[in-house]
Amino acid sequence: MTFFISFVSFFLIHSFYNFKGMRNIVWFVLVICFFSNKIFASNDSTAVATDSLSKFDKTNQKMEALFKVIPVPIFSYTTEAGYIFGLAKFNMIDLDKRDTVSSASKISEVATFSTEGQVNISVSTELAWNKDKYLVMGYINYKQQPEYILGIGNDVSIDNAEKITLTRLKFVNYGLVQVIENLYVGIGVDLTNYTNIEKDSTSFLIRDSITGVEGGTSTGIGFSAAYDTRDNRYNPYKGMYCILKTMTFPSFMGNPYLFSSYDFDVRKYFNHWKDHVIALQATTSYRTGEVPFYELAMLGGEDKMRGYYKGALRDNVLVDCQVEYRMPVWKIFGITGWIGTGRVAHSYSDLSLDGFWLSYGGGLRIKVDSAHNTNLRFDWGFGPGGVNGFYINFAEAF
After folding, report:
1. Alpha-carbon gap, residue 71 to 123, rounded angstroms
2. Who's near 152: CB < 8 A, 6+ residues apart?
3. Which of 54, 132, 141, 152 has its CA 20 to 30 A from that of 161?
4. pTM higher than 0.85 for the full model?
């Protein structure tokens, strides 16, 4: 554990001191400190008890009940995708009311459309039953959208951004069984179809004969192992989570490209004072074989390196880490702040301390399911050179 914390801290500090926009981070920290001082006063137990039956609490109960029935509008923004609008439905359910041991299961559906022509429809699930002995994690996603690629590798420039249009249908599912307390193993499948890949005739994808320009259908089989001691899967206050996912696309399944993927994710949560949480995460991804450009390890997104457009930077290897501070403010409201760093490379031997990108930002949390202590999150992430992204989603980023 000491090694894990040191790893995260080392790369965060390294990127912090090599980032020129120090003033933005200083102001961000000052804002967090200001709200922290406010919370120390507002968390008085007497005040909470006095206001426990207030009009606000009664209204909130009604809103929670309504939230479980109807979808809610969502909005996000990135410099590449533009403004994104859509609807989302999120529910935490207990598959067996008699099972008081199993964690709550999650079912979420999202449909979004952007001003740049993106269409993205997803259904994701995390199911647990039989006293947490069985887990199923997966999603199905359809997207028809332009993507922006700066190139392959870490040393790229926004000036070289290329717009590529594609259509994708992807189904990924892992089923795991508990073998001993907190330890799970299982198998997974990946069915993916890429079609209608449109690129400019002068694109680097054609010029450099990059794998995957023709698209196609891929079928993969994989293995997964997870160790989980979190007290809540979707809003952890304490515990640890480690998961390894592998997927291989062999020739006997008729795959047009023969490659394998490996993803490792480690998280640790500390809760030393009331409901204040310090969360740490470190991940790495590795791709080997004849990897199509759309299956390379990608930096960015709404959960890691927030603020960066996912896929703008991609290669065979990805490493990143982040630390986030989460604290309550008043009743159902809370705020968070994070700082993270990461980069991609062709191989692990090509990694160096230079070239790490910085992500930082903050967010608002609104509790929308008190029974399962789950939040609706609003995050705004930033990076150097004007990089930024705004996200609305359910549950914590990690």
Report:
1. 13
2. 204, 208, 210, 293, 296, 314, 315
3. 141
4. no
